[in-house]
Write a structure and sequence with these properties.
The complex is a heterodimer of chains A (747) and B (310). Helix content of chain A is 25%, strand content 26%. Chain A is built from 15 helices and 37 strands. A nine-stranded mixed sheet of chain A has the order 20-19-21-22-29-28-27-24-25, sandwiched between helices. A five-stranded parallel sheet of chain A has the order 7-4-8-9-37, sandwiched between helices. About 5% of the residues of chain A have low confidence. Chain B has 310 residues and is an alpha/beta fold. In chain B, the strands form four sheets. In chain B, strands 7-6-5-8-9-12 form a six-stranded mixed sheet, with helices on both faces. In chain B, strands 1-4 form a two-stranded antiparallel sheet. In chain B, strands 2-3 form a two-stranded antiparallel sheet. In chain B, a hairpin with a 3-residue loop joins strand 6 and strand 7. In chain B, helix 3 runs antiparallel to helix 4 and helix 5 runs parallel beside helix 6. The radius of gyration of chain B is 22 Å and the shape is elongated. The two termini of chain B are 37 Å apart. The N terminus of chain B is likely disordered. Classes of the chains: A alpha/beta (747), B alpha/beta (310). Chains A and B meet through strand 2, helix 2, helix 14 and helix 15 of A and helix 1, helix 3, helix 4, helix 7 and strand 10 of B.
């Protein structure tokens, strides 16, 4: 027999209370003078045995009641007649081992991971040869071979020896559901789930929490082994944000590092920045307040085009080493290739619709500039490799034929950006037809009609509002005259903008949208309602024009940069970037992409032809993943920095009472120490609670005691003695009698 | 408590209740003056003395039939002499008589009241009354007298003895033991003339010996009245909690759970009483069992009424 709360066994000493009270009462017995003991002595002789037996029985009942109450409070479980209650049967056990990043933390007394391994081996040692066991890991690549119950415990031991801490966030509830489904298929009479974890709160934040357990199914007990101990001081790098005017070599880059402090202590740490393994800068001392975050920014440039690997590191050691660095990758191009498609070429260049635009994008007119402009005619849409261009500016083009429109749409879907600029050739009805033929994804909104200023005196409409929250327009917030001085005499009006699909970036002072953006697939389409020539507005002549186009170009070219940072375990999207609809699809067996893993191994991947998108899921190792297209003429290479899940920094520990409603009220047992595992397993496997049995026994004993005691009390009830005082002298009541007595009075 | 005109153990209220009662000897007693009781002697007035008109209640035995025939009137002849009664009250003052339960009188107090009223009743009817007290031995022996002064002396002695006994009445004090049968035998030898013996005691001694001693009185032609005095607790044994009982005579201690011994005790005490009742009936002794919760005057009134009616 074992006890869940053995401390209550001390209460068994209370069984001595009746004995002590009996002895005290004997000592305290009253002394009563009595006329003669001759009759009592005889009674004592005759009832001695009966009294002795009665007293012993009463004493035994009272002591037994106290003993049984103490035993019941200690929550006993039976071991000896376990076979009768089914404890001798085989068990199916699922071990869920939390190997999320926080398990690498070193607490006071040792590493959580080492404690978890010790606990797991302890459980395995307690299992019987008839038992079957499965080991489920919370993180790391899926191991289908592990998702089954093994009779041979050695298989599990060998697997356990290979396990290590990963960099992902654990989802313990989904693993518990998985374990339940595994055990449901098992025919073993006893089923148990053990979760060995550091109780990190984030591990229990799961959509599975809302899912109720299957109705009618008896769920196995869950034993939670808490390996978390008192924590040591720790600081963590949780985020690196890169900001740059454009993804071009030579452009300044700002890397903002966010640090999370310890829950209890303020910390002072240094952070260093490395680019391509070269230390660029070390921060001054950064004070990280307790239970708060701090930020520090590094400014640097990369001179050479190509992919650069950056690392931000926290100097010094702390409780968890995994969260002391974050990786990032920078794809720096030599310049941003853009195509400007104009309706025709004119002998006098400044009469061309794109004259001002081309000069604004590349003022020097040569290749040594951040933006490289190729001027094309509409015919080039059939042959030009659009995927070579980050942005295509369509300037005053007549509505395109359906094949051209479809090619342009595919370019956008694949991550390209198209900017429509209006002019005399733009007919609203024809454009809407073109857009319809392209599946409605070529324009951000339907066009309605052209509007012109009625008289030359009033000049037209000014730009009345711009979205200063937009990254490309934020720089133009002040002074407002910068954009309010732009006068538009003609523009193409549009239908009401569906806010869920498109976003208005600028409006005229009459409220009509002037610049509208709509994301499509991996790219986007923008529509400028006026022209970039002086015939429709003075925009090309205003100071706003050049910086607006530069910012818009850098913004659009950098739009995919956010995809470069991932948390471990999240898939890398494989985009068939700028796939050419006219190009020949690769044959079966031909791979479209090549992925270089952090360890240097290369994986060849195929993109799904229908959606032009696939993903690479095995990102369980942190590092830089380099993706390169294998299509002919597509030299682009992209880099993805896979980092530790920022939620996994050792932070909030979840209390067991918060977990209880998630797992189930009656099935959760918590071991706060590895040493408690043995008793918990014994309770689970070898015994049933005897508490109820003991309480029933207490009830029976108390009834017997009450019966015995009351029987005695009934015997004790004598007839009540009524004090009838013998008539005492009362001289006052009968004074006449005194006279009669006078003759007898003493003279 | 003694008042100017009374005695501690003489209760006027009880006296009022008993004023019309008389203690009449049932058998023939030897007196020395005319009284209520038949005398065995034929004195100077044994022969006819005079006629007296019959009054209601006169014994028809003494009716003069000749005078009735001659005069047709009822006369009684007064020629036989009547004598007074000589009574000796023997009071047990042993330790067991000091017992009381609660606020009741001790058995000794109760017996003292009884003694006083009996003595007064007899003195008032010109009977001689004496008092003997004893425990292991005779402590007081006052011969029978008829004078009121003797009565007063008897009361003072009685109060003195009771006061002395109760002065040592602590709960565990060891009182005097009893030797009833020897005392009675000695007294039986001492009383030469026939008289009325009134024994007031709890009789906690060997019952056979006591009965034998009472036979001794009967053998000497004494009339005997036995007042067997108890405390009600001695009969019912109402105690509940385990206690150490101390014998008032021997000082012996015995720890007892009353619930276990009560039934047996009651059986024993009933047998004890029944033994005396039967034995007394056998040798024509008036046996009056009473306990201190019963008013003694009431008890005495009933007894005397019953005795007169026989």
């Amino acid at each position: 027999m074992s006890f869940a709360v053995p401390l209550f066994l001390l209460a068994m000493l209370a069984a001595l209370i009746p004995v002590l009270l009996h002895m005290i009462n004997l000592q305290k017995a009253k002394t009563i003078p009595f006329s003669t003991l001759r009759f009592l002595r005889l009674g004592v002789e005759k009832t001695r045995r009966r009294k002795y037996l009665h007293d012993i029985l009463l004493l035994a009942f009272r002591a037994a009641a106290l003993l049984l109450i103490a035993l019941a409070l200690a929550k006993p479980t039976v071991t000896h007649f376990g076979g009768l209650l089914g404890s001798g049967d085989a068990s199916a056990v699922v071990l869920i081992l939390d190997n999320s990043s926080s398990m690498s933390t070193v607490d006071v007394g040792g590493s959580r991971w080492e404690a978890a391994l010790a606990a797991t081996y302890e459980i395995l040692d307690r299992l019987d040869q008839r038992d079957s066991v499965a080991l489920l890991l919370t993180c790391g690549p899926p191991r289908p071979a592990l998702d089954q119950l093994y009779q041979n415990l050695e298989v599990v031991r060998e697997t356990l020896a290979e396990c290590r801490v990963r960099y992902e966030k654990a989802d313990l509830l989904s693993r518990i559901r998985k374990a339940e489904s595994l055990l449901q298929d098992s025919s073993a009479p006893n089923k148990e789930i053990y979760v060995i974890t550091d109780m990190q709160a984030v591990s229990w934040d799961s959509s599975m929490a809302a899912e109720p357990a299957p109705a009618g199914q008896e769920l196995p007990p869950v034993v939670l082994v808490d390996v978390h101990r008192e924590t040591l001081a720790n600081a963590a790098l949780i985020d690196v944000t890169l900001q740059s005017a454009g993804p071009v070599a030579g452009m300044p880059i700002q890397a903002t590092v966010r640090l999370q402090g310890d829950l209890k202590l303020d910390q002072q740490r240094h952070v260093e920045l490395l680019i391509d393994d070269q230390t660029i800068e070390t921060s001054p001392t950064i004070t990280i307040p307790a239970a708060a975050t701090a930020e520090h920014s590094f400014n640097f440039t990369v001179d050479q085009p190509g992919i650069h690997t950056g690392v931000v590191r926290l100097r010094g050691d702390d409780a968890c080493g995994n969260d002391n660095q974050r990786l990032f990758a920078i794809s720096a191009a030599r310049n941003i290739p853009v195509a400007v498609i104009k309706p025709n070429e004119h002998e006098i260049s400044y009469l061309e619709d794109s004259y001002y635009l081309e000069r604004a994008l590349n003022p020097v007119g040569g290749g040594d500039w951040a933006i490289q402009v190729d001027s094309l005619l509409p015919g080039a849409l059939t042959s030009a490799p659009l995927r070579d261009y980050a942005i295509v500016f369509c300037v005053n083009l007549p509505a395109l034929d359906a094949p051209y429109a479809a090619r342009l749409r595919d370019y956008v879907r694949g991550g390209g950006h198209v900017v429509w600029i209006c002019g005399d050739n733009v007919e609203a009805g024809l454009y809407n037809g073109m857009n319809q033929s392209a599946g409605g994804e070529l324009l951000p909104v339907s066009l309605t009609r052209r509007r012109e200023s009625e008289s030359s005196q009033d000049g037209g409409w000014n730009i009345g509002w711009i979205d200063v929250a937009h990254p490309a327009l934020a720089a133009f917030a002040q002074p407002q005259s910068l954009y309010q001085s732009v006068l538009v005499s003609k523009y193409i009006a549009v239908d009401a903008v569906d806010q869920s699909l498109a976003k208005v970036l600028a409006k005229l002072d009459d409220g009509d949208p002037l610049l509208i953006e709509r994301p499509v697939g991996s790219g986007s389409v923008l529509f400028l309602g006026t022209s970039v020539h002086v015939a429709w507005s003075n925009l090309p002549l205003r100071p706003l024009f050049l910086p607006l186009l530069a910012r818009l170009t850098f913004y659009l070219a950098d739009a995919n940069a956010a995809q470069g940072q991932l948390s471990a375990g999240n898939p890398i999207p494989i985009i068939d970037h700028n796939s050419d609809p006219g190009a020949v699809e690769p044959d079966d067996g031909q791979r479209s992409h090549e992925l270089t893993l952090p360890d240097g191994n290369i994986v060849r991947l195929d993109a799904e032809s229908d959606r032009q998108r696939s993903s690479f899921a095995d990102t369980h190792e942190i590092g830089i993943y380099r993706l390169r297209s294998l299509r002919q003429g597509d030299p682009r290479e992209r880099a993805f920095a896979v980092n530790l899940d920022p939620h996994e920094v050792p932070a909030a520990i979840s209390a067991a009472d918060r977990i209880t409603p998630l797992v189930g009220e009656d099935r959760l047992l918590v071991c706060r120490d590895v040493n408690e595992i043995e008793s918990t397993i014994r309770r689970l496997r070898e015994g049933r609670s005897l508490m109820e049995l003991f309480l029933i026994a207490v009830l029976i004993v108390l009834i017997a005691e009450a019966y015995l005691a009351n029987r005695r009390v009934e015997q004790e009830q004598p007839d009540e003695l009524r004090e009838v005082r013998s008539s005492a002298p009362n001289y006052r009541r009968l004074p006449d009698q005194l006279d009669k007595l006078s003759e007898f009075a003493q003279p | 408590m003694k008042r100017d005109t009374g005695y501690r153990y003489l209760d006027p209220a009880a006296l009022a209740r008993l004023q019309n009662m008389s203690m009449v000897a049932r058998g023939v007693v030897e007196g020395f003056i005319s009284g209520l009781h038949s005398s065995p002697y034929k004195g100077f007035s044994v022969e006819f003395a005079e006629h007296r008109e019959y009054t209601r209640g006169d014994n028809l035995r003494f009716l003069d039939w000749r005078m009735l025939g001659r005069t047709d009137r009822l006369y009684v002849k007064q020629y036989e002499e009547e004598t007074n009664l000589k009574a000796q009250i023997i009071l047990d003052t042993s330790g067991s008589m000091l017992y009381r339960h609660g606020r009741a009188l001790t058995k000794l107090e109760y017996s003292a009241y009884l003694t006083a009223i009996l003595a007064l009743l007899m003195t008032r009817q010109q009977d001689a009354v004496g008092l003997t007290t004893f425990d292991q031995q005779i402590n007081l022996d006052m011969p029978a007298r008829t004078s009121p002064r003797h009565f007063g002396e008897m009361m003072r002695q009685l109060e003195g003895i009771c006061a002395a006994r109760h002065a040592n009445d602590t709960p565990t004090a060891k009182g005097a033991a009893t030797n009833i049968s020897d005392t009675l035998h000695r007294l039986a030898e001492r009383f030469k003339r026939r008289c009325l013996i009134i024994l007031i005691s709890d009789l906690y001694d060997e019952p056979d010996e006591i009965i034998r001693a009472l036979h001794h009185f009967r053998h000497k032609h004494h009339e005997v009245i036995l007042f067997h005095v108890f405390d009600r607790a001695e009969i019912e044994f109402p105690f509940k909690e385990t206690a150490r009982f101390v014998d008032l005579e021997t000082g012996e201690r015995l720890q007892i759970d009353p619930s276990y011994v009560r039934d047996e005790y009651r059986r024993q005490i009933n047998d004890f009483i029944e033994f005396y009742r039967a034995s007394c009936a056998e040798c024509q002794i008036d046996y009056v069992m009473t306990h201190t919760s019963v008013a003694y005057d009431l008890m005495l009134s009933r007894y005397l009424s019953r005795r007169c009616s026989l």
